[in-house]
């Protein structure tokens, strides 16, 4: 079973988080990593070291795996065609999407499928979203879909 999982990493000043190889998107919610500032994201597949800047960092990390993660903020199964070509895409405050994914509220409050979600609360896509708030999401899309306003995107090979 393929799963998309969201993690929230709170890194102290100069702290390093070492990650094994795997498809992921990292978004810096506050502070900075060595070369990535708040509000930016990056896609990666290789082993990685996330090193917080001098003020630390709050990092949101989405990983696509062949298992469900017990220690994730939220994990959801993703139904993929094994012969399809896909991409992992990070978007901020995008239009409603039918794509499978996970969002995290950054500011304000959203009503998601009738339930209130506050900052750093997470929810699964697709969903009906109302309210005045900001969120960042990672969705799994077909590779041929246009990138649009993506913060980060990378190809997946199943």
Polypeptide structure, described:
The chain has no helices and 15 strands. The model has no long low-confidence stretch (mean pLDDT 92). Strand 10 and strand 11 form a beta hairpin. The protein has strands at 3-11, 16-19, 24-33, 36-37, 41-44, 48-65, 74-77, 86-92, 100-108, 110-112, 115-117, 122-125, 129-130, 133-142, 152-156. Strands 1, 2, 3, 4, 5, 6 and 7 form a 7-stranded antiparallel β-sheet that branches. A 5-stranded antiparallel β-sheet has the order 12-9-14-8-15, with no helix packed on it. A 3-stranded antiparallel β-sheet has the order 11-10-13, with no helix packed on it. The protein has 2 domains: 3-65, Jelly Rolls (Sandwich), CATH 2.60.120.10; 74-156, Jelly Rolls. It is mainly β and 158 residues long.
């Amino acid at each position: 079973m393929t799963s998309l999982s969201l993690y929230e990493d709170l890194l102290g000043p100069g702290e390093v988080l070492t990650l094994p190889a795997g498809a992921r998107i990292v978004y810096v919610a506050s502070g900075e990593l060595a070369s990535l500032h708040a509000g930016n994201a990056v896609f990666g597949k290789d082993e990685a070291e996330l090193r917080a800047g001098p003020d630390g960092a709050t990092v949101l990390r989405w990983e696509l795996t062949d298992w469900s993660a017990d220690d994730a903020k939220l994990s959801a199964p993703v139904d993929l065609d094994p012969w399809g070509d896909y991409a992992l895409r990070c978007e901020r405050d995008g239009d409603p999407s039918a794509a499978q994914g996970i969002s995290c509220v950054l500011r304000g409050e959203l009503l998601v499928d009738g339930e209130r979600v506050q900052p750093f609360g997470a929810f699964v896509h697709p969903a009906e979203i109302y309210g005045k708030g900001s969120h960042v999401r990672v969705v799994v899309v077909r590779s041929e879909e246009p990138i649009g306003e993506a913060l980060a995107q990378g190809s997946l090979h199943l």
